[in-house]
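Incident log entry.

Two folding requests arrived from the same account within the same minute. Monitoring flagged them as a possible duplicate submission, but the sequences differ. Recording both here for audit purposes.

Request one:
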Amino acid sequence: MRNKIFILTAVHNEIVDTKKLLRSIYSQTYKNFAVYLVDDGSTDGTSKFIQTNYPEVNILKGDGNLWWTGSLNLALRRILEESSDNDYVWIINNDCHFSKDTLKNIYIFEKALGGSKNIIGSVVLNEKTKRIEDNGVKIDWRRLKFSTGGTDAISTKGTLYPTAVFKKIGLFDAKHFPHYFSDYEFSIRAKRMGYNLLVCHKSRIYNKAERTGIGNIPAKPSVTQAFGLLVSRKSKVNLMLQINMIRYVCPKEYRFGSFQTLISKIFKIIPLGVK
């Protein structure tokens, strides 16, 4: 008997992207799945559309303050009540789409490995350029740099988790990583507890890359831009987020170098932003 896969995503508006995601999900050749979607305070009719057109989707509601990590945890608590240790959770962003064999490919890849301690990511491509944006994560802690093409961490863009991993090590860390880097933190925590991080190259996800938060630092940021880069939850260079990565995730032997790098990053932003 095929294992059940609980497909999990979270949305806040952007109904056009969600429609494309749902079309991808319900075209899958692997059929033993259930969909859990967290609507975190959408005001564009997302829930009504899904209830009308995809009544089988399990919708959980937030008030707009859950963000990505809180949304995942809300659904995971429900999924863990309804799943067995032999099932899986496949987490996917709502701004992604994929071919009909994607779920089957990642499932076959996982079953061929054997064992039950594998977390398997996908190859993520920019939907416009077809350039690889994410292929597992390589981390240079000294330079506080996260690049594609490694298995030091795994993002949540099309990643398959055994349900048992959440029972063993807990959920995503919403306190310290409410939006970004909670997936990296979780996968690093899992790896340290004996789980294998892998990438299935036949599982290919197409992502709307321009929606992936604030990450590029302008050559001459204004004061407003500099402030936003350092404090916005939508910014991948958010100051507190980076401090928390160093404090709670970075290996002890690299923390001093990471803090030095962080300080230099801040000074690359602030002086240029102050007029």
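Request two (distinct sequence, not a duplicate):
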Amino acid sequence: MKRHAFTLVELLVIVTIVGLLVAILAPPLQRVRSLARQVVCTNNLHQIDVAFRGLPGAGLGGGKPYCSPAGWPSMPMAVLSERSTYMCPESEVPTYDVSEYVVYNGYVGVEVPFEDQASVAGGQGLCRLIEDTPEYSIWGFEGGIARDLWAGGANYLTDGSVDFVIRTSKKPPLVGTNLTERWQGQYELLSLNLRGKAVKGWEDFHKVAKGATFEMDGGSTNYGINALVSGAQVAPDTIVLLDYVERVANRGEGENTTDELRRSVRHLGKINVLDSNGSVQAFGPTSLDPAVDPDRWSP
């Protein structure tokens, strides 16, 4: 029996029909996927709530069930270590290369990037790559005053010319550790800046203890904790944790919470919110605005 091949017109008709079906079905399928990710996010927040209540002292004589912003998310991670729990699946966590950071000395108005400056003429380079391994790098910095970074001896911690030392990890999340033994008065206005903004935890660098470690890019979570919930007594329905573009959500410290909430929308126009009563609900950004409902943000 003789077989007939498709004509060009028939093939074009089939392609058109398939394209129409894809166009019709794509939005519902995308919505289903978004709903599935919203369910995962809701489950994450429920698990984090359980981790909060497992913190030492939680529930004992009015003890604090929530950590301060400085302890988020490291404190609940000691109880619930699965890192994926701290990631809303609807949003990527931004990661940065160490070259995007600068150490800023407000005393002399100098920004020093993380880059080896051995080739700067006259020995005026302000950053020195002291050690580089597959796991970490150690950076020595000149504060921008004496500019004698390249003059000292072999021991960068004690031989005078290196004013402060930072070790940075090579694997995400990007972590920095202060290795500096001592500080001098003129270096008390140091901060670690990313794209012109101080990294949380490094705003007052001279107060950072030797050996203290901070995540530099926040790569361990993309949820934001309410900065006000670390008090001993927290009223029901107070916002504890939510989808947020910053690791700390609050009404102070110079942040425009209203604008941040608009940019935090992830789940079909809604934001998942964990309340202090353990419930997780989805709200529009307007209904979460502190100007509209201030009591929900205040313990």
